[in-house]
Amino acid sequence: MVAISLDIGTTKICAIAVDCDTGDVLEVLSEANAFIPAGRAWEKIQDPGRIMEISEMLCGTLIRKYAPIACIGLTGQMHGILYLNRSGEAISPLYTWQDQCGNQPYMGHLSYAEYLTENSAYRMATGFGLTTCFYHTQTGQLPPEAYKLCTIQDYVAMRLVGKAEPIMHPSNAASLGLFDLPGRDFDRKTINRFGMNADLLPAVVPDHRIIGETREGIPVCVAIGDNQASFLGSAGVDRGTILINIGTGSQVSVLYDGTQAPENSQLEVRPYLEGMNMLVGSPLCGGSAYALLERFFREVIRMAGIEAESAYPYMNALLARKEQVTDPLLVSTRFSGTRHNPHERGRIENIGLDNFTPLSMMIGFLNGIAQELYDLAMPILTGAGFSTRHLVAAGNGVRKNPAMRSILSERFGLPVKVPLHREEAAFGAALFAMVNAGVFADPDEAGRLIRYV
């Protein structure tokens, strides 16, 4: 039997077919995601109608080729929201996790996100779905016919099974903010206190939930967040593994028994699978910092009248020479700020007459990405309650860059293991669906399909 899963990422939408017996990824299909040109520089929005079309096309292709299909799993970009009417139709764009409306000034010296944080027991940030909803509510931009809000993966799952009302797994629900972790539900009283309508929020369901069937009769599993799916697809339920994921953004994650993050840390606790939590640090740039450098190099090349589709092949070739950089540039890759200080910006320091070179910049940016993750992970690496034995690295920012893997290994002091299968989040969503559909008894059994390069 074969399982299919969808990962609705920030930059692309991916579908994979997985052999349920061997864990082999039989096929990977992907399409670019559907960004919409925004009228304001801080808006980051996408077209849910086009996303649905792409998702159905990718799933349909795999269903026709690999039928019978055991189940369909879904995951995708967390934090973002769209609004639905009573018929389950999208009546807004998808406001993604990169949207900056929450950083706009609200009251006195506070932004919308800062106001929510200072007046509740929760850390809120711009891009969190309920920060976005608060902004829309306060500015009169909430669609009058809005009946529910949800993440894009919840919307696609709902449409695949022909329903009109979404439901959410705790991993997606918590990513919107104002979420009561011990109770595994939204803090609806606090949400109403801020003037939002808590009735907009879908029901939050436990792990073991098949939400319906496609028109072909294929069971569809409730969607989970991409951070959780990536951990499941890369490390399973191993408490001795620390996972580094570098894609458009980045995360450092470990399984965690508590419900409160270590004091004075910038980590957050997120729900994982039933009865389990994760401790997560989330830099906002990650791979996009290195993409920024690639765009800079293309601009330099363009100055000479040469158009290059991508500078990455030249960057990879230069790194492959393994030339020593004796006086490295010191780079902070906080170019988009942090969740706790959105106004912070990146820096390039220690510039001398001999080290302001492309190679030094590349090594400096990679070191900066690794250092930000390491700084966030310090409470995990030094905490008495943690015993990290394995470092697993996932995402295209690691898979396509051997130098990044070497730098992470050196910085964290552990050898790096990279999953054999690509598209780790999609693979994790497939494992989650297999468990929910009864192919495996539990996540630990499903995790036996995980292999490493």
TrEMBL record:
Could you tell me which residue ranges the Carbohydrate kinase FGGY C-terminal domain spans? 244-436
**Can the keyword Kinase be found in this entry's annotation?**
yes
User: Could you name the domain of life of the organism this protein comes from?
Assistant: Bacteria
Carbohydrate kinase FGGY N-terminal domain: from which residue to which, for each copy?
3-233
Pfam families in alphabetical order: FGGY_C, FGGY_N
Which BP terms in the Gene Ontology apply to this protein? carbohydrate metabolic process
Q: Which PANTHER family match?
A: SUGAR KINASE, XYLULOSE KINASE
Keyword Transferase: yes or no?
yes
Alphabetically ordered keywords of this record: Kinase, Transferase
CDD domains to which the protein is assigned, alphabetical: ASKHA_NBD_FGGY_SHK (cd07777)
Query: What species does this protein belong to?
Result: Thermoclostridium caenicola
Family listed? Belongs to the FGGY kinase family.
Recorded hits in InterPro entries, A to Z, give: ATPase_NBD (IPR043129), Carb_kinase_FGGY (IPR000577), FGGY_C (IPR018485), FGGY_Carb_Kinase (IPR050406), FGGY_N (IPR018484)
Protein name per UniProt? Sedoheptulokinase
